[in-house]
Design a protein that fits this description.
With 693 residues, the chain is α+β, with helices and mostly antiparallel strands. The protein has 20 helices and 28 strands. The chain has a seven-stranded mixed β-sheet with strand order 2-3-4-1-7-8-9, with helices on both faces. Strands 11-14-13-12-15 form a five-stranded antiparallel β-sheet. The termini are far apart.
């Protein structure tokens, strides 16, 4: 008899098979699995089964009358290209000698859905267990296999994942079709995606509307600034003249010892932020590299929102530090001699839901870095450095605040002097204001009531600055802490520390906005396009509401914790979508938001003919006109260009150059427009420069 283990990827299956003694590799057609010691180990390939597309439910045509799209019951459908692997899994699950199925997919909401979709799709009813681990080291796998959970313990996790998929489907499929139809262009709408676009667009509009205003500061030779900032150069010059050569009195001198505590351990979001700040890496690439390092057994599970470890991991943390001696022996020795800081800032069981923070495993110190690509090396370095910084001492410094009085003007200066660098000597990120302040070294230290002559006073001009464009780092911070943008105090409390999307989905949301043409990268900045701003402005508030989306995210979290109601959430989303569809159906004088460009007027009805990805078609639509020309024509061996179709419609003829025959020969020819009233074709009239071969 066998226990069947299903992981998410082949590399994970190989690691698990080794640990459980399933060493025999068994081929089955183009697939294989591991077998031995009472176990069969196989894998999915990520998602093999999903909840389908509108066409799977009979909604093949894009028509307003079919909206909103709300299936009576959601089904499960195999994804294209994976039927062979699904067939193997079904065969193994159905074997009489398989008594139990162990879910070893990634220990999170998505991994739970991957397994359950397959399990339910093939109709398996055998009992299930759950391997729930945060690391793929042999030690972690063996420990997890000894502490298998009953599969039912993660029912709420699956319920949250399945509910999220259905909610996103209803809203995304319905509204994407709605806005694509009414705008005659392909638009993408999402439960999280569109509110995030609105956040970016709103920031960009604020930057565009910002008017810079100059200001002037009067500054003493020691760097102290006048507390009264002048609006004009004349005002500042008057203050400078008034104070120059006069006696400056140290009216106040107060010194305090302060500390800058160690950073928290990395969650996925903080890792993505630091990777973007330090290396300019995208959130998607950071997640990809972290996942790869996890599968190589070098990092713990990356899709986590926690920045803490549990108290039972203290011995493990100590052993990981020791294992990093080859990485940085001097630093590790200093840490061990001074003692590791394993306080509540690092160890807190109450702040861990499913997974602890991302930390290195005790294998990473022995790794040859040449086995990793550049991004993997960067991510590994960030995680190791953050791990060691979190276990270090705080940065201790003294802060002295001075006030100097010159005539009736008050000048202020703050000086920060390092006492003990602690973790900060290993800081990787860009300099902060605190770092700049520590560089202010005074040649003279002032005691209270001391005096000096205020010579060499300067006037420094500055200007007010607009808000900054979002980077992926700053946008992730807003998505994670969306409560800061919400005015409603009750709702703010509900979504505090919950945010928009999940740590695992935020990177893909950013990439989807870019792919849709709504947002573009400009070096490290994320900037909305004209198209994106126009579109998000055109939709009603409840499509782009961060408050509403954050509320839904909170309900999904409650479902995961066993406190939410999936049916109530789905009903709320159905009602919301229905209201939006009704509103848009009744809207008049619509300005279409489209990237399509007119290539001329339709020869049939005079309406603009628009270019899309597959054809040039009349904007009046198929029902009213139906004129269209496919872009690709095998006779010319290439696509028609917009300029060629413009000439064709204007003159009835066009000369096409650089055509390629079926034999691969180039030719040029004159084509005329042939419209039967039902079909539109280009008819070859004559070859230019000789007949085609």
């Amino acid at each position: 008899m066998f226990r069947l283990i299903i992981s998410e990827k082949p590399s994970v299956s190989a690691s698990i098979a080794y640990c459980v003694g399933a060493t025999e590799k068994v081929s089955d057609g183009n697939c294989f699995y591991w077998q031995g010691s009472g176990y069969i180990v196989t894998n999915a390939l990520g998602h093999l089964v999903g909840i389908g597309m509108p066409e799977d439910y009979g909604w093949g045509k894009w028509e307003l009358d079919t909206l909103p799209l709300v299936p009576q019951k959601f089904g499960l459908f195999p994804l294209d290209g994976y039927r062979t692997q699904i067939k193997l899994l079904k065969k193994l699950m159905s074997r009489d000698d398989v008594t139990e199925v162990i879910n070893a997919c990634d220990a999170g909401r998505e991994g739970e859905c991957i397994f359950r979709y397959i399990y339910n799709y093939v109709g398996c009813t055998k009992p299930t267990k759950r391997l729930w681990i945060s690391s793929l080291t042999d030690e972690s796998i063996k420990d997890g296999m000894g502490k298998l959970l009953d599969g039912k313990e993660k029912d709420n996790l699956f319920e949250a994942g399945f509910t999220r998929a259905k909610a996103d489907w209803i809203l995304g499929m319905s509204l994407s079709r709605l806005y694509s139809i009414v705008n005659d262009d392909k638009h993408k709408v999402g439960r999280v995606k569109t509110p995030v676009l609105n956040i970016i667009a709103s920031r960009d509009e604020a930057i565009s509307a910002f008017t810079k205003r100059p200001f002037y500061k009067v500054v003493l030779e020691n760097g102290a600034e006048c507390e009264n900032i002048s609006d004009t150069a004349e005002q500042a010059e008057a203050v400078r003249a008034q104070c120059s050569g006069k006696t400056a009195v140290v009216s106040s001198s107060k010194t305090e010892q302060k500390k800058d505590n160690r950073p928290l351990l990395h969650s996925l979001t903080s890792l993505q932020q630091e990777a973007n700040d330090v290396y300019g890496m995208t959130a998607a690439n950071t997640l990809k590299s972290a996942q790869s390092l996890y599968e190589k057994k070098l990092l713990t599970y990356p899709r986590t929102d926690s920045s803490y470890i549990s108290d039972d991991m203290i011995p493990l943390a100590e052993s990981i530090v020791k294992s990093l001696a080859d990485y940085d022996g001097e630093r590790v020795q200093r840490l061990l001699e001074q003692g590791l800081s394993l306080d509540k800032r690092v160890v807190d069981n109450s702040k861990i839901s499913d997974h602890h923070a991302i930390i290195p495993t005790n294998l990473i110190g022995r790794l040859d870095s040449t086995a990793l690509d550049e991004n993997e090396q960067r991510v590994a370095k960030l995680v190791i450095n953050r791990f060691l910084c979190a276990l270090d001492k705080p940065y201790i410094y003294s802060e002295t605040k001075y006030e100097f009085t010159v005539t009736d003007e008050i000048f202020k200066l703050t000086v920060k002097t390092p006492i003990e660098w602690g973790w900060k000597q290993y800081k990787l990120s860009e300099p902060t204001d605190l770092d700049d302040d520590t560089e202010k070294v005074l040649s003279v230290l002032y005691s209270e009531n001391a005096t000096f002559t205020a010579d060499n006073i300067e006037v420094k001009q500055g200007e007010t600055k607009p808000p900054k464009h979002f980077t992926e780092s700053t946008l992730l911070a807003v998505m994670e802490n969306i409560d800061r943008l919400i005015d409603d105090k009750e709702l703010k409390g509900f979504v505090k520390e919950r945010g928009l999307g999940t740590p695992a989905t935020r990177a893909s949301i950013i990439e989807e906005l870019i792919a849709a043409g709504y947002v573009e990268r400009k070096k490290k900045q994320l900037v909305s396009t004209d198209y994106g701003r126009a579109f998000v402005t055109s939709v009603p508030d409840n499509v782009k509401s961060a408050e509403l989306t954050a509320h839904w995210e909170q309900v999904l979290s409650d479902i995961e914790n066993g406190n939410g109601n999936a049916d109530m959430l789905l009903d709320e989303i159905k009602n919301n979508v229905s209201e939006i569809v009704a509103l848009e159906k009744n809207r008049v004088n619509r300005t279409k938001i489209t990237r399509k460009a007119s290539v001329g007027n339709c020869p049939r009805c005079g309406s603009p003919v628009m270019e899309n990805s597959k054809a040039f078609s009349c904007s009046a639509g198929r029902d009213k006109c139906g004129f269209f020309i496919y872009k690709t024509d095998k006779r010319i061996g290439r696509d028609y260009t917009a300029a060629e179709i413009t000439e064709l419609m204007a003159n009835g003829k066009v000369t096409l150059k650089n055509c390629i025959s079926s034999k691969g020969n180039k030719y040029s020819a004159v084509f005329s427009l042939e419209d039967t009233g039902k079909y539109v074709n280009l008819r070859l009239e004559e070859f230019v420069g000789g007949k085609k071969n």
